[in-house]
Amino acid sequence: MKNTLKLMMLAVLAFGMMACGGKEQKLTQDDLKAAEKTLFNENRTLNEEVAPEVAEKYCLFVKQNPNDSTSAKWLFHAMEINVMLKNADKSIELCNQLNEDYPDSEWTPRALLYVGSFVYNDQLNDTAQAHATLQRLIDNYPDSELVDDAQKSIEYLGLSPDEIMARIMMSQMEEMGMELDE
Question: How much is the pTM?
Answer without folding.
Answer: 0.80
